[in-house]
Write a structure and sequence with these properties.
Blueprint (H helix, E strand, L loop, with lengths): L10 E2 L3 H5 L20 H13 L2 H5 L2 E8 L2 H5 L8 E2 H12 L11 E10 L7 E3 L11 E14 L2 E17 L8 E8 L19 E3 L2 H7 L3
Parallel strand pairs: 2-8, 7-9
Antiparallel strand pairs: 1-4, 2-3, 4-6, 5-6, 6-7, 7-8
């Protein structure tokens, strides 16, 4: 699913607000988060905001009930995690710890700041249709998109830095109580799928003020 020819036209999500408001009614109230009933890219926009603001409620609503997070093979080979994916509850529990400024765990400081920048080709036509298991999900079509990311997590006097990495997000349309319409949610998230394009994170134990990381490595670090 890699589209390396699209990389020159990657759109930085952090720049999206300056364009997304160009056709808005100037007197209409602006929502800080975008509706999940709208374009699929709204999921990625809200993901970045929820992560940088460490908003667990907003983050949780992005995850499908059948959500699975897949760690990279390099993280598995390094012994950071085993080879099974995380389900929704495991993902939420780890994120809850990462977002909590009062989190306490031996040798792991609470996070004081998360900086996240996503880059991807904008538009629903840039999501690749995927046919899931039709026995379990009859008639459904899911959609996947490769997303480049930079991630910096500050915890105590330590910084964890991941630069020019890539993840694959797959979304599905789901009916959720409390919403009038079905919404887009992340059902599959595969981390670190494009390591050949950027600097490979160092998965060996290190000490010092900074350490190379990836999204999956941070999740494992703050797992209960």
């Amino acid at each position: 699913m890699r589209n390396t020819w699209l990389l020159p036209v990657l759109v930085m999500l952090v720049a999206a607000p300056m364009f997304s408001c160009s056709h808005d009614d100037p007197v209409a109230p602006k929502s800080r988060y975008k509706p999940l009933t709208g374009p699929r890219d709204n999921v990625l926009f809200n993901l970045q905001k929820a992560y940088t603001e460490r908003n667990l409620d907003r983050y949780s609503e992005l995850l499908d009930n059948d959500f699975l997070f897949y760690f990279s093979q390099r993280a598995i080979d390094a012994g950071i995690v085993d080879d099974r994916p995380w389900d929704r509850m495991e993902e939420i529990n780890a994120s809850k710890n990462m977002f909590n400024p009062n989190f306490s765990k031996p040798d792991v400081s609470p996070v004081s700041k998360i900086e996240l920048a996503l880059a991807y080709t904008a538009g629903d036509d840039k999501w690749t249709p995927i046919t899931p298991d039709q026995v379990r999900y009859p008639g459904e079509t899911w959609y996947g998109k490769d997303v480049r990311y930079n991630l910096t997590v500050t915890a105590g006097d330590q910084q964890y830095i991941g630069r020019d990495l890539e993840a694959l997000f797959v979304v599905r349309e789901a009916t959720v109580r409390g919403y009038g319409d079905s919404i887009w949610r992340i059902v599959v998230w595969r981390d670190d799928v494009g390591t050949a394009l950027g600097v490979s994170p160092d998965y060996r134990p290190r000490t010092g003020p900074s350490e190379e990381t990836s999204w999956g490595k941070m999740k494992a670090l703050y797992a209960p």
